[in-house]
Give the backbone structure.
Amino acid sequence: MTLHEWAETLIFFLILLAAVKPFGTYMAKVYQGERTFLSPILLPCEHLLYRLCGVNGEEEMGWKRYATGLILFNLLGGAALFAILLLQGVLPLNPQRFPAFSWSLALNTATSFMTNTNWQNYSGESAASYFTQMFGFAVHNFVSAATGMVVAIALIRGFVRRRTSAIGNFWVDLTRSTLYILLPLALVFALFLVSQGVIQNFSAYRTVPLVQPVTYDRPKLDDKGNPVKDAKGNPVTERVTAKEVTIPMGPVASQEAIKELGTNGGGFFNANSAHPFENPTPISNMVEIFLILLISGALTYTFGSMAGNTRQGWALLAVMLAILVFSMGVLYWAEAGGNPLLAKLGVQGINMEGKETRFGLAGSSLFTVSTTGTSCGAVNTMHDSLTPLGGMMPLSLILLSEVIFGGVGTGLYTMLAFVVIAVFVAGLMIGRTPEFLGKKIEVREMWMSIVTVLASGILVLIFSGIAMIVPSAVASMNNPGAHGLTEVLYAFASMSNNNGSAFAGLNGNTLFYNLTGAFCMFIGRFAPILASLAMAGSLAQKKYVPPSLGTLPTDKVPFALWLALVILIVGALTFFPALALGPIVEQLQMVGA
Amino acid sequence: MKDLKPAILLFIAFTIICGGIYPLVVAGIASVAFPKQAGGSFITDRSGRELGSRLIGQPFSAPKYFWPRPSATTDFAYNPAASGGSNLGPTNPDYLKTVAGRVKALRDAGITGSVPADLVQASASGLDPQISRKAAMIQIPRIARARGMSEEELTGVVAAHTEERQLGFLGERRVNVLALNLALDNIKP
């Protein structure tokens, strides 16, 4: 790395780490109902919402009622988005007159945004109206993020509370997440992004002249808009000259801020955060990466603070940070070497395919590992065009079940499931009763942790396997050979783990991928959520066991190393064969050619 | 199902707050505080006519213009209505052929020595408005010939349109191709 890239990376992580404690403390206060500096403005709004919506804010819920409320709310929201997509053609705020989505695409997209995945089988600028973007997608960007956060908070309460069945009130947690945490940050950062050049308007798309007109071949269409074919069935093209181009507009900044902050990742435009209107400068790039990591990073402190052991929170953050930085290093190194097959042609420099000039390699690499370590899935670099080993980094981070920071809330509750497994296995190995934070880890907790950690992995392997024997699924590949397998593996990894980024060459808008994808996203989201809530309910009922000499300390370096090892071993055992057939084979082919 | 009512009503409330009020407030403040950026950073001529956006690249292939990076957008290069990358993998034979073709085009235009990767590899957005400084510098001899300008003068114009790293260390030094070419047309149409 060059000197300025070292500076860029180091200063970034220092700022991020500096934000963890104050922001983590703030979130702990919010969820424990304490006063914060925003309370004078927001407390009246919060109470008004409860009154209007029939919420009793004082009421506590058991895990089953908490989960029922969560599922009900999410299903209603998903149904509303499904309806918006099917009715897009007749809804307002549609200056480009985009028609409705097909039913399978609408189902995939509605599931995708409801589950915080934001997998996109459509191109924003040529398919989604401003109404859909604002009242459909942006709303889910907020509430699906809040949904993830409340599950983590409920699980923390499970560890902290004793001999009770109550784990909180879903409506209160959801409202506070949105009002006190997501909205104020999104508002401030959206405006900052506008200052850098991210657009925010409701104009129709603009037409500008080209300085140098461009001539190209376009498929000829008949009166009904169907492609014309010649006698042999090949599409007929016509030569046309474009003297002007259409530049898409829209309320992008408001979407951009929450899409990063809530680790949603759904781009306003097809190019996502690589688009100059979504991410115009190196500063906007670093700010977006900061937003992606902020809540998940700070939640580890919130956890430590609520559990009365902040060292425990830092230990989890250290594990996340170590794996993230390591992945960034490998990705940077792989890309800096360039593509050896092009070097033979006299091409010099890093692999620039699918990268933007302004971000630099450090800015592209950091974004790529951050967006896949968390379940964000926004991209400023096209992962499909990374070198094989480079592309294996984002893929591996997703396959580790999204715990390297992870999605907002989801990262923490999945990490806690890994902690439970690590404590249990360590306990067996050294002959001690497994305990964590004074709670005995028993069969039920182990089961729920296993479901949380392995649900997505099972989906990935089963559905990637099925895709390999379905001809239409194979036909969707954009690249031949090992790279094509990686595209499919990445697609199911991304959807099952609710990431949403893609090896985007794969044509996902087919009946097969729309439906299997929706299924993977749904199960990959709600199976771990239900398991985590069930574990919260079970833990909350247990009595506190004070630490004794026989207790394994979980907030010290040896346990952090052990935890990292457990995460890597579970990931490697599940996915090494698939990775060997995809990126690893391709890397060998590239170097050996 | 006593939780059905809050589920429905809260979802409606958040739809209004997060889907309506929030973007409107951002747009309202932005239109006062940063009207140019919020509107798309358009470059206008003296009569106020929009010539393009600073942030959205345009296709150039004539010898007298600086060429931008390759673009993989559908229909034609730099089609802003269809942003996106090629999504081609590094070992794809078709891709390697495409890049070899681009290298040849540069060689035919008189470029010798090593070729900067950004001039032959397509960007992520397909709309990348900038090229690296090196990619601009190696094009100067061709443009000097085509426009009858001196290489020194062109070097000066490139330097004037080079964007430095933000705060001195963020991102890469880069040259805005559209702004540069518009400046050339202004100096010597």
Summary: The radius of gyration of chain A is 24 Å. Chain A touches chain B through 126 residues (CB under 8 Å).
